[in-house]
Amino acid sequence: MPLELTDERSVWLFALWVVWATLLFGGFVFGKLNTDSTHRIPRWARMASSFTLVVAAWSWYVFVPVFPKDYSLYLAIGMTLGFIGDLFMAQLVPVKAYVLGGIGSFGLGHIVYIIAFATFGDANQFNEPGVRWGALIVWWLVALVGWYFVVFRGQKHTFLHYAALPYALLLATTAGLATGLAAQESVFIPLAIGTALFLLSDLILAAQLFNGLHFKMIGDVVWLTYGPAQMLIVYSMLGVLAIRNPMLV
Question: Which of 94, 108, 150, 181 falls between 20 and 30 A from 123, CA-CA?
Fold first, then answer.
């Protein structure tokens, strides 16, 4: 099977990207500020933008040839779990412990992302130990410091406060592996930016949930970092295909 996308498939993937961007950024530009001044982007537009990335991720899995198939499958599963997490956090899943449900779904998604980045790096010799472990250690420290100051310090500690630490370290592992890939192959720089944005988004959300941080449109700031983060992860398939076929891009 040739390692390239047909014109029709490329148009489909680009169209999904346009739909995602229109929903997220269009929702911000044209939406109205809600009553507690946290969002301009309507909830339906946020959920639809996330679902669009699910469709894009599974489209990549269907379209790509056999060699990067595992990577695309991991991304599709991870994005699907992320969408489920979005449903929890939007309180569209009827459970009281919606934050724990969101953490669980996102956490499982990041485990899948970690498998994707690690296995792809190992299979393609982007696994130089010094680079990989150096990036991981830096991001683990960032996550630990962020968790301590944003979630833990000065709070009455509950199970969720402690659960946020392994979750933050999990996101940092994703960012570390992506950074390690980017340090060895420049096509993965957008992926590394995406995973960093994901961690940043999560820290802002944690500050809101655990520390009562509030400023105008804080919810939009979370989504305008989280949404592009997931998009850059899903569309990192472009980098994978570029490595397999440099003539593709």
Answer: 108
